[in-house]
Amino acid sequence: MPASGTPFLANSLDRERSADLVRPRWSWRRAWQNHMYILPSFLLVLIVCTWFVTWGDWRFFDSENFCGFYDAQALSMIDGRFDVPPDAIGNEAFIFRGKAYGYFGIGPALLRIPLVIAFQNMDGRWSHMMMLVGCGINLLCAYRILRLIRPNDSITTPAQRFLHSLFILCAGIGSTNVFLAGRSFTYHEAIMWGGAFSLLFTWMILKYLAQPRYRWLVLAGFFAFMSLHCRPTVGAGALLAICLISVMLAWRALTKSQPTQSLLAFTAVARPGRHALIAAAVAVITVATYFGVNYAKFRTFNGIPLQYYAWYNAVPIRMKITGGKQINLKNIPTGLATYFGPHGASFDRQFPWILLSRQPISLGSPTTEMVEGFSSVPVSMPALTLLATVGCVALVRGSRDFVRRMRLPAFALLLGGGIVLGCVDITERYLHDFYPGLILCAGVGLSRLETKEQLWRPMVLIVALTIISIVLNCSFSFVHQRIGYDAPPKKLAEYTHLQETVNRLLPGSP
């Protein structure tokens, strides 16, 4: 027996090395045969999202209002500062010592740095492309995570292929993904990238839990870093998962035991102490840079010091309503009832007939500062909700390793996204904070359903719910894009003309 480990660990490592030797070599032909079935759904989703992102004009590099902040932030960071020109941030500025700052994280600005250096005349024109890339990453991660959590990698029946295609359609255009794609606002991009990096984190951490390698852990840590610096709410979930893994690894190194192997299917690690140090270092760097950036901006660790918010200073009553806090625990009951309740849509006699709701369910005495159009998870995403419900039951039972590995990221990301329940604002874009956790749980649910012998009944239901999800979310996105804040007059006129045309064609319309 080697002096550095137990017989169990040595045998596990031997089996792992043997598996590496006999694993079939990757080839383009094999990859094409295994994955070609999913390409039509990918293509359809990307076409629809591209239409929304480009306003139906198919121009990828047009400028749009309130889409140049990250370009300005990238240029400022190159110069060693964080303030931006006032016109790059507008009413969303935080004015501190006479300079304008954004409360948004630096993650999307880091992605911009190579672009603003290489293409100096393209400032303010990258948002459309960035949103499309984020949409593509969401689809890719949803698919790869779905394949990772299956009991085996083979897709043998048409029913399985069809269910996977429906899953991709739901993830792409039957969810808040397409709503965010409708406007490339700075805060839409922040939420899009926060969710995308959380899914990338999940992809890597699942690979790490199954086959601990330094590269998977480092990549997972990097994606957790980027997620937090794009969207602190959902990013907090990825950071929590990294912290928990660090603790588990440290415990393994100190006690020489495997306490989480059965609970999380966390494979034995040859040198848990080294892995624990890497995970801890990632967590420390992520937290230190987040608070460090806040302090460099505002001389406080608070990332949203509302006393400097130009919008609140222009309307002082908002500061009084919120008490100077963006998150309040007594808002959580209202957030739960609103974002997971039945009042997620409203109806109109004019095209497109289905609109976002504006009547939240208030419980207790919430400090609600602003209510925009919103929907709820079960109303706007019924297909993913059904699959996620099945997945949650499977996660609790945890009958297989591939399901137990999902417990940690699913719990952490749902908890991180849940922070938004205490927010003083209610709006549809915040619903996307639940998107990564919802995709994970729904993927588990789908992997559970596709093992059943009689698939036609659940398949009919999922098809119906997928159609409803697509119609609702595309309608929400279209209306928000065309008549929402700062919509171009030309697009508003096009929308009005289309509405009038459809109304004339249908009998009984006003």
What this model shows, in words?
The chain is mainly α and 510 residues long. The protein has one domain (126-303, 318-505). It is 63% helix and 3% strand. It has 24 helices and six strands. The chain has helices at residues 7-22, 28-35, 39-53, 69-78, 86-89, 107-118, 127-148, 158-173, 176-181, 186-210, 214-230, 232-255, 261-264, 272-298, 310-314, 317-322, 332-339, 377-380, 382-397, 401-404, 407-417, 435-449, 456-483, 489-505; strands at residues 94-96, 99-101, 346-347, 354-355, 370-371, 425-426. Strands 1-2 form a two-stranded antiparallel ribbon. Helix 10 packs parallel to helix 12 (232-255). The chain is globular, with a radius of gyration of 24 Å. The N and C termini lie far apart (83 Å).
Q: In which range does the helix fraction lie?
A: 55-70%
Q: Count the strands?
A: 6
Estimate the mean pLDDT confidence: 90
Distance between the termini: 83 Å
State the helix count: 24
- Strand order in the largest sheet: 1-2
- The unreliable regions are 1-24
- Give the topology string: H per helix, E per strand: HHHHHEEHHHHHHHHHHHHEEEHHHHEHHH
Please state the structural category: mainly alpha
